[in-house]
Write a structure and sequence with these properties.
- The protein is α/β, with parallel strands linked by helices.
- The protein has a domain of 169 residues: 3-Layer(aba) Sandwich (Rossmann fold).
- The protein is 33% helix and 25% strand.
- It has eight helices and ten strands.
- Strands 6-7-8-3-9-10 form a six-stranded mixed beta sheet, sandwiched between helices. A four-stranded antiparallel beta sheet has the order 2-1-4-5, with helices on one face.
- Helix 6 links the parallel strand 7 and strand 8.
- Helix 4 crosses helix 5 and helix 5 packs parallel to helix 6.
- The longest helix has 16 residues.
Amino acid sequence: MSQPIVEMRQICKRFGGVHAVEDMNLAVYPGEVLGLLGHNGAGKSTLIKVLSGAFPLDSGQIIMSGEPVRIENPRDAKQLGIETIYQTLALADNLATPANIFFGRELVNQFGMLDEARMEHAAIALMKRLNPNFKNFHAAVARLSGGQRQSVAIARTLQFNAKVIIMDEPTAALGPQETRMVGNLINNLKAEGVGIIIISHDLHDVFELADRISVMKNGRHVWTGAVTDVSKDDVLEMIILGSVPTA
């Protein structure tokens, strides 16, 4: 395989006497979807918060494109091209798509005023690239479907050159058609070489979307491999027991 976009090596994160993550390794490659699985409390959310800069690591190393990096806060992560889309999507419901894509990082003209025309033009070009069927550019995002809202959240990360996108339960509460829409969006991201980490409790969706799976239990790594090398029952057993099934 090519060089990973991002690697996490022997990551440890403790909260007092609780070892939330212990000696965890993770790698994501260009154009790859990695599914991160485990029960609540397995450590997957803590691991991802270390990568996104929400938690500082206690020990270990993060490598971006072969070079060690320091991620001490979310700003550091964003500057490195690591973006996170949480389950809530963090969209401003009363604003339209262009305003949401540029929210907090608005473009201004030479007079220091919002350059709404340039932001709208960029938003339309980006959404056409990501989701050619998207048309509701001027509607408040509160009026969009769940799949369309995911489109806006993903577009926001791409506008600022995301190399790795972390998606927390991207298909939660979506119907079959909207789930397929999110699947198409993810395939478009893969085609552009973006690395994607999906955190999900839905094994079916993970097997549909992911190229590889990494399983955690009690803060530790259990197994990582291709979805084609394992069954859903095997993965469920690893999630529950924290061990790899014997043949």
